[in-house]
Amino acid sequence: MSRASTPVIDPVELTRDLIRIPSVTPADEGAMGVLERHLTALGFHCRRLAFEGPGGEGVHARIENLYARRGTASPNLCFAGHTDVVPTGPSEQWSSQPFTAEVKDGVLYGRGAVDMKGGIAAWVAAVSQVIAEGEPEGSLSFLITGDEEGPALHGTKRVVETLAAEGEVIDACVVGEPSSSQHLGDMIKVGRRGSLNTWITVTGKQGHVAYPERAANPAPVIARLMSRLNDHVLDDGYEGFPPSNLEITTIDIGNPATNIIPAEAKARLNIRFNPSHTGDGLIDWLNREAGAIQGETGLQITLDHLCSGEAFLTEPGVFVAAVQDAVEAVAGRRPEASTTGGTSDARFIRALCPVLELGLVGQTMHQIDERVPTAELETLTAVYRRVIETVFERL
């Protein structure tokens, strides 16, 4: 493709085009098609990777994903993101309708403006500028999913598994999550804690409260187990991470009667853990603790676990420094390398390559009137362009 024929993308207009598509997870509604058309015009080879299976609450879902690559040379610098968005909430509470992408006083309003259609559009625009100047010294790729805001079962996780099985090499990846805290470029995310959910059921025997010898009360058993788990200190922290924490999110018995010993008691907990632990290690510990209480009380205790992501850390090095230097050169501030916040799809990409998150200010993500100044989209495009150039110089 000649430089003269390379289209230069306007990040604001592409963001607006994407916002106008109501791609509330897991629906695509054509969002991948918009990106595919732009990337094809930029010389990318695009592959749709659609996966089907049970989604949230057992509902069957078909997830659209896209992997696009331009070039065959090394290094392969990847940008990862998601086109799905969270529900809008009451649309009448928005200053303008959430999918009209209205610009008012230099600010673009709409669901996905920050999280993260704006980040995707800025990287596409940056790529178009880089290509217009000449051929990059390496390959550029995109890994875009429609399943980040949902259960994340058929999105990036399965794309990464597919690419790894095919031997696809990605040397470094920038995820466009809104990592900035107060000002654009003040923070990048170089790691995340892992997340483990556990559902606990204690099975007893129903009976009359006046005749406890004829029943087996699961309530004190689950209270005993939850207290034991809650009092356990998981660790004292890990370099760059706070201590891991276990939080009891619910204890349910659902007994409306005052004179019945219940037959069953349930609870749920979440552990956010640093690299001191693995999901499997924590699961083994929880099972041992429950087994000990079961042995002491004689009541059956069952546990179901879901580890949605392992803890990871991209260590300081050439890649992290290149991104920090690029941000500082454009935005005038050196980003803090942070591990705060919840999970992101970076937890899956870590299996392929070093990964970090760099994007817009996240103050309004998931809120009514999600919005971004159009000037910030332009600045992020300039930051991303410098990131691409700097990473190719150093990797």
From TrEMBL:
The active site is at residues 84, 148. PROSITE patterns: ARGE_DAPE_CPG2_2. Its cofactor is Zn(2+); Co(2+). It is an enzyme of class 3 (hydrolase). GO terms for molecular function: acetylornithine deacetylase activity; cobalt ion binding; succinyl-diaminopimelate desuccinylase activity; zinc ion binding. Zn(2+) 2 binds at residues 115, 149, 366. InterPro entries: ArgE/DapE_CS (IPR001261), Bact_exopeptidase_dim_dom (IPR036264), DapE_proteobac (IPR005941), Peptidase_M20 (IPR002933), Peptidase_M20_dimer (IPR011650), Peptidase_M20A (IPR050072). Pathway: Amino-acid biosynthesis; L-lysine biosynthesis via DAP pathway; LL-2,6-diaminopimelate from (S)-tetrahydrodipicolinate (succinylase route): step 3/3. It catalyses: N-succinyl-(2S,6S)-2,6-diaminopimelate + H2O = (2S,6S)-2,6-diaminopimelate + succinate. Keywords: Amino-acid biosynthesis, Cobalt, Diaminopimelate biosynthesis, Hydrolase, Lysine biosynthesis, Metal-binding, Zinc. Zn(2+) 1 binds at residues 82, 115, 177. Its EC number is 3.5.1.18. Binds 2 Zn(2+) or Co(2+) ions per subunit. Residues 190-292 form the Peptidase M20 dimerisation domain. GO terms for biological process: diaminopimelate biosynthetic process; L-arginine biosynthetic process; lysine biosynthetic process via diaminopimelate. PANTHER family: ACETYLORNITHINE DEACETYLASE, N-ACETYL-L-CITRULLINE DEACETYLASE. Catalyzes the hydrolysis of N-succinyl-L,L-diaminopimelic acid (SDAP), forming succinate and LL-2,6-diaminopimelate (DAP), an intermediate involved in the bacterial biosynthesis of lysine and meso-diaminopimelic acid, an essential component of bacterial cell walls. Belongs to the peptidase M20A family. DapE subfamily. This is Succinyl-diaminopimelate desuccinylase. It comes from Brevundimonas mediterranea.
